[in-house]
Design a protein that fits this description.
Elements (H helix, E strand, L loop, with lengths): L2 H28 L5 E5 L5 H18 L3 E5 L6 H8 L7 E6 H10 L7 H4 E10 L1 E5 L8 H10 L4 E5 L5 H13 L3 E5 L4 H10 L4 E5 H9 L4 E4 L27 E8 L4 H16 L1 H9 L3 E2 L4 H21 L5
Parallel strand pairs: 1-2, 1-3, 6-7, 6-8
Antiparallel strand pairs: 3-10, 4-10, 4-11, 5-8, 5-9
Helix pairs in contact: 2-10, 4-12, 7-12
């Protein structure tokens, strides 16, 4: 074949390829062209469902397409999360992910049914659920350092209650035990927070690692005492409770979080569009107020920032699981 004809064929091929490549760009520019499904992997009611409906409502308005919440509970969030991990990566199936499912459960279970890093694509962090260490008022401690010192003077370890094995509160408690010398023994309450708050007020269990939303009314009424918030700043619901850092305990911050995910392989342009809308939504004062009223602190991020947090949490909780002998 002559050189000129060969060059002509290559030019035609290039035009065909460029034309084919333009189709996805056109499709992405039109996104979304149909309703979007937001899978909430828990039942109706509760923080996850409340957050999912606020996000769905806001995105429906900003995207110009209906975003429908689909509750798919089961296996502590695994069933719904796995369904999204296996969905078509076209931007029309999204997940409201929970850290207990996304980073803690994989750290505890070697045979977890999906790979967070490989099967899901971070869109944005959405909100934190703050934690607090609370004690019965009879214990002579006003901050987390004083509670640690108190635990070291006891003949047996101080019991601390949480909503259950593998909860963020449980893992945060183990992190504190392993790294700050806290002498305490985990007591999981399978029935959730309600029962152990009653036991905490009665002195049946002397301490608890608990969500701020559950503990705040009782702390503010003086029925239990908050001694430490594992966060960079004091919680707006517990302004009198010091942070761990204020008591000299650094590097052990922990919070339960929710975030928005798409299936791996979802085009970056779609992820970026969703991230832009979510960031704008969470900056809205009315939305922020609604979230805070539901005990959720808005924490938007870029996809890269959220991905880095996930990597960090997977590493952190896997280390805790190994050192505390919690892995299966």
């Amino acid at each position: 074949m002559k050189k000129g004809k060969r060059a002509g064929l290559f030019a035609c091929f290039a035009l065909l390829v460029s034309g084919w490549m333009a189709v996805p760009s056109s499709t992405l520019a039109a996104y979304p062209e149909k309703p979007i499904r937001l899978v909430v992997p828990f039942g109706a009611g509760g923080s996850a469902d409340a957050l999912g409906r606020i996000i769905a409502e806001g995105l429906s308005t900003s995207l110009g397409q209906t975003v429908t919440v689909e509750n798919r509970p089961g296996a502590t969030g695994v069933i719904g999360s796995q369904a999204v991990a296996r969905a078509q990566p076209d931007g029309y199936t999204l997940l409201l992910g929970y850290d207990g499912t996304i980073v803690i459960a994989p750290a505890l279970n070697a045979d977890f049914p999906f790979d967070t890093r490989k099967d899901l694509k971070p869109v944005s962090k959405l909100a934190d659920v703050g934690l607090v260490v609370a004690i019965h008022p009879s214990i002579p401690a006003n901050n987390i350092k004083e509670l640690i010192d108190y635990s070291k003077l006891q003949s047996s370890r101080v019991s601390f209650a949480t909503p259950g094995v593998g909860s963020t509160a449980h893992m945060a408690g183990e992190l504190l035990r392993l790294n700050a010398g806290m002498q305490w023994l985990h007591v999981p309450y399978a029935s959730g927070s309600g029962k152990f708050v009653v036991d905490l007020m009665a002195g049946v269990t002397p301490a608890a690692y608990i969500s701020v939303s559950t503990a705040a009314p009782f702390i503010n009424d003086g029925k239990i005492r908050g001694v430490g918030v594992p966060a960079a700043s004091r919680h707006h619901s517990l302004t009198d409770v010091p942070t761990f850092s204020e008591a000299g305990i650094d590097g052990l911050d922990a919070a339960s979080w929710f975030g928005l995910f798409a299936p791996a392989g979802t085009p970056d342009a779609i992820v970026d569009r969703l991230n832009t809308e979510v960031t704008r939504l969470l900056a809205d004062e009315n939305i922020s107020e609604r979230l805070r009223n539901a005990a959720l602190e808005p924490t938007p991020s870029t996809p890269a920032q959220f991905g880095a947090l996930i990597d960090s949490d997977l590493t952190k909780w896997s280390k805790v699981a190994r050192e505390a002998d919690l892995s299966n």
